[in-house]
Amino acid sequence: MKVQVDEARCQGHTLCAMIAPHVFELDDVDGHSSPISADVPAGAEDKVREAAGSCPEQAISIS
Amino acid sequence: MSVDKASSVDDEDRKKNRYHFDRHTPEYREKFESITQDMHARCPIAWSDTYGGHWVAAGASEVFELARSSDKVSNDHDVKGERRGYQGIMIPPQPRAKGSRGGFLEMDPPEQRYYRQALNPYLSPAAINRWIPFIDEVVRACIDEKIESGSIDFVDDLANVVPAVFTLAMMGIPLKNWEIYNEPTHAAVYTPPNSPDIVRVGKLHQAMREDLARQLAEIKANPRPGLVDALARFEIDGEQPPDDELLGVLGLIIGGGFDTTTALTAHALEWLSQHPDERARLSRERDSLLDSATEEFLRFYTPAPGDGRTISQDCEMAGTEFKEGDRLWLSWAMANRDASVFPEPNTIDLARKGNRHYAFGIGIHRCIGSNVARTVFKRMLIQVLDRIPDYHCDPEGAVHYDTIGVIQGMRKLPADFTPGSPLGPGLDETLEVLQRSCDEQRLAEPVTSRKTEARIAR
After folding, report:
1. How far is CA B181 from CA B62, B145, B210, in A?
2. Structure confidence at residue B12 (pLDDT)
3. pLDDT for B129-140, tens place per residue?
4. Which of B63, B114, B149, B254 lies 20 to 30 angstroms, CA to CA, from B277?
């Protein structure tokens, strides 16, 4: 599974990192999210799906 | 003539979904759920004749699309009539705000973005996490003030105090001044213009504005870290904005930082008192539930229920034809009850999944203090659950705001509990200690200059 955060859509709501803290990291300065790695670690798939569904800006895509 | 007639027919046609919407009436508060359901079913975007006429977006997908279209939907408040005369985010315009812009929430990009970039390093998750020991100490002192008595007013004695003290700390304003800011900020929201108390509240507000102006002047002359300093040094294209613009931003930080977090905390504590099993479960399973419960309280109680906007070009969005200059109300609160996104929207589910709520707004104006609100709320809630776990709110004593047009807030929330022992000094002494920590450790520096957590001596 691969995960992407659309930088132009993310507004730093931080829900993804609350739900999947080992997959998403937040920028220290503005709190915007990015995946730590584009490849989702084994076992984290459900949490990443949940994070994508919880993003208020719908900025997370999974492939 | 015929052109006018055609355009008025067009106007009737594009406004065919009509709904008499007046969010400033007590009736709107009482019938919020049925009005919301009705609008979702019949007209997720409606034209209302109230307040000079404006659109109301109530549906989740409609609010989502409009809030994310900042190229066509403006926040601008053109107080000096230099641009297109737009009225900012208040519907109707507030008399108190006449002639002053409400900070970057009443600006469009790029100006809005420059301000946020200057303030983000003080308000990001990493920036706020550094303050947790400070916040915990304020909460501790608030509870200690009351714990031996077995009774507390959660609004007056806790949920008003902590957000106020912490907001001033981040700003770089002396903590002992919190009472200058506290009452006017809340009372400005809940006191209607026809209240006999309005003159007194106006004077308190004036005193607060004077202190704010004094702090800005002082910090410009003798810098000390914090949000005020960030603004004192702020420039756009090499020019400093005038002081009234900076005071508008400081007013936004205070208005955003105080009453909203108070409202969220009071509502959540009231609900948990009414649902003691859920309270016990939340306390027991906090490691897995605290985050989701916080988001659910935010969704359900949406402290800031919406924002006004102005359409900045003729366009079609969300199936509706808009004309430049049309006013628009984006209802975060009603979008948060849309069953197409939130199953069983009128039920609080502490473990709710997929909770992509609108409580902090959507799009480029996402509440810049969202990380403050969440952190302060959670730290207050945890200590209440740990120290006065059996509290019971008195339903007779709870006072909700009469209307929820501006903030869905509470004025009083008295509660009783089994008394306990204080863990440290009271509030005044604690604020002195915390002030020294702020000064010595320069706690209000941005995260770009100071990464370490606050150390609180006691």
Report:
1. 37, 21, 11
2. 86
3. 999 999 999 999
4. B149
Coil vs helix vs strand at B180: helix
- CA B446, CA B409: separation in Å to the nearest integer? 30
Q: What is the pTM of this model?
A: 0.97
Q: Which residues contact B203 (CB under 8 A, 6 or more apart)?
A: none
Q: What region, left, alpha or beta, does residue B79 occupy, with left being phi > 0 and alpha being psi -120 to 50 degrees?
A: alpha
**What ipTM was estimated for this complex?**
0.98
Q: Hey, of A54, A55, A62, which one would you mutate to test binding to chain B, going by the most B CBs within 10 A of its CB? A: A54
Residue B169: inside a domain, yes or no? yes
DSSP codes of every residue in B313-360: S-EEETTEEE-TT-EEEEEHHHHTT-TTTSSSTTS--TT-SS----TT
How many structural domains does chain B have?
1
Q: Report how many Cβ contacts below 8 Å link chain A to chain B.
A: 66
Query: How far apart are the C-alpha atoms of B29 and B404, rounded to whole Å?
Result: 6
- The whole-number pLDDT of residue B1 equals 42
CB contact under 8 A, B126 and A58: no
- Rounded to a whole number, what is the distance in Å from the CA of A34 to chain B's nearest CA? 14
The boundaries of the domain holding residue B257 are: 2-441
B327 lies in a domain? Answer: yes
Chain A interface includes B120 (CB < 8 A): yes
CATH code where residue B414 lies: 1.10.630.10
Q: How far is CA B139 from CA A63, B257, B456, in A?
A: 44, 16, 13
Q: Which residues of B289-320 are buried (b: 16+ CB within 10 A; e: fewer)?
A: bbbbbbbbbbbbbbbbbbbbbbbbeeeebbeb
Cβ–Cβ gap B117/A30 under 8 Å: yes
Rounded to whole angstroms, how far apart are CA atoms B215 and B168? 11
Percent of chain A predicted with pLDDT > 90? 100
A58 and B121 in contact by Cβ < 8 A? no
State the nearest Cα–Cα gap between A23 and chain B, in angstroms: 16
pLDDT in tens, A5-50: 999 999 999 999 999 999 999 999 999 999 999 999 999 999 999 9
Going by their DSSP bridges, the two strands B45-48 and A60-62 should be labelled as unpaired
Rounded-to-integer distance, Cα B47 and Cα B24, Å: 16
How far A11 CA sits from the closest chain B CA (Å)? 6
Q: What is the pLDDT of residue B100?
A: 83
- Mind listing the domains of chain A with CATH numbers? 3-62 (3.30.70.20)
Which of B268, B276, B277 has the alpha carbon at shortest distance from B302? B268
pLDDT in tens, B247-291: 999 999 999 989 999 999 999 999 999 999 999 999 999 999 999
Q: Is B113 helix (H, G, I), strand (E, B) or coil?
A: helix
Residue B453 lies in a domain: no
DSSP-derived pairing of the beta strands B327-331 and B73-74: unpaired
A62 touches chain B (CB under 8 A): no
Contact check, Cβ <8 Å, A57/B68: yes
Low-confidence residues of chain B: pLDDT under 50: 1-3
